[in-house]
């Protein structure tokens, strides 16, 4: 049997337009005069707002705006923008007939047909997604609050325990600084909805407590996002490096400074890698330590081979130098790359 060609439908057919308006009940479709007076109202608009066509035609569309938005002139701004630019888009809370609210993304357009001079507004109800997003933000804020409270409790317990054992104030201060760094790193992640963190932001937050040397710590590199675990690890590493520089390294000298550089690279398989360099200069001569301190052990454990990375600390006479090589691809990304490679074989 010879296949029949598809039946052609004229997109400009008035019957098609009417069917779309009648059946697209997930969308509110309305037309307005240039002053915002509503002239037509779709079944989707009735379903979304609770107003019937007879109730609302002849009213101004501003009644869909909250009182605060009307006071701010948002309805008038939308009309003016549409008349000036041909369209205006907004996402905001709107009012229903019963006083309830719904979150809608809408587009108001200027109809340019000579025989059809009006404004067309189309809105989609996105209330469930908006409420889910607000709930997620609420939970993240609660998580941040609980983490901060837990860290504060841990800090208090550690302080009281160590003080009772006559541990030096310097050691207690080191522990408090590390806990504060953890808290700041988690705060950055909460601000980013736990989708990772920008390396520039991590640097600024981690170096902020070291005000005495921050002006002499300069850094430069492209935009790089770290996963949540990598962001916390990098924050702790930076805290240890900065603390060491202030106590024993280049920042103990008036002429000493720290230079931080990093770069992002992609390998042949599409994996992303970060190379990060901390380099001190202008300080006292550096001697190789007789034992590995907490910072060195942290670097080796956090960025070591078991995590696919590499951390090297070099005690050059001119200043300490730390090089970190870190894969940025997540396990999920690596799986996709492996599957793609298998498919290409």
UniProtKB/TrEMBL annotation:
Residues 13-86 form the PAS domain. Keywords: ATP-binding, Kinase, Nucleotide-binding, Phosphoprotein, Transferase. It catalyses: ATP + protein L-histidine = ADP + protein N-phospho-L-histidine. SMART domains: HWE_HK (SM00911), PAS (SM00091). Its EC number is 2.7.13.3. The keyword Phosphoprotein applies. InterPro entries: HATPase_C_sf, PAS, PAS-like_dom_sf, Sig_transdc_His_kinase_HWE. It comes from the Bacteria. This is histidine kinase. It comes from Phenylobacterium ferrooxidans.
């Amino acid at each position: 049997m010879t296949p029949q060609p598809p039946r052609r439908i004229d997109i400009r057919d008035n019957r098609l337009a009417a069917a779309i308006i009648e059946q697209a009940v997930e969308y509110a479709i309305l037309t307005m005069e240039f002053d915002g007076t509503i002239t037509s109202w779709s079944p989707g608009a009735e379903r979304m707002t609770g107003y019937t066509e007879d109730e609302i035609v002849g009213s101004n569309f501003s009644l869909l705006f909250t009182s605060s938005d009307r006071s701010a002139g948002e309805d008038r701004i939308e009309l003016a923008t549409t008349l000036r630019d041909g369209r205006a888009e907004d996402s905001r809370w709107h009012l229903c007939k019963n006083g309830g609210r719904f979150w809608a993304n809408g587009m108001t357009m200027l109809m340019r047909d000579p025989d059809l001079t009006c404004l067309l507004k189309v809105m989609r109800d996105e209330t469930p997604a908006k409420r889910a997003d607000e709930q997620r933000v609420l939970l993240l804020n609660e998580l941040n609050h609980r983490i901060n409270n837990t860290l504060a409790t841990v800090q208090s317990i550690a302080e009281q325990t160590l003080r009772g054992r006559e541990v030096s104030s310097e050691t207690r201060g080191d522990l408090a600084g590390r806990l504060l760094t953890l808290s700041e790193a988690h705060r950055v992640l909460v601000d980013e909805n736990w989708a990772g963190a920008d390396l520039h932001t991590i640097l600024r937050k981690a170096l902020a407590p070291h005000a005495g040397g921050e002006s002499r710590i300069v850094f430069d590199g492209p935009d790089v996002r770290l996963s949540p675990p990598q962001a916390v690890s990098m924050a702790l590493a930076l805290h240890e490096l900065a603390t060491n520089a202030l106590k024993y390294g280049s920042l103990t000298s008036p002429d000493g400074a720290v230079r931080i550089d990093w770069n992002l690279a992609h390998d042949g398989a599409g994996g992303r890698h970060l190379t990060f360099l901390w380099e001190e200069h202008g300080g006292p001569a550096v001697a190789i330590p007789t034992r590995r301190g907490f910072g060195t052990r942290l670097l080796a454990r956090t960025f070591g081979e078991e995590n696919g990375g590499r951390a090297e600390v070099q005690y050059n006479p001119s200043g300490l130098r730390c090089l970190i090589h870190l894969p940025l691809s997540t396990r999920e990304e690596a799986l996709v790359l492996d599957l793609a490679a298998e498919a290409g074989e």
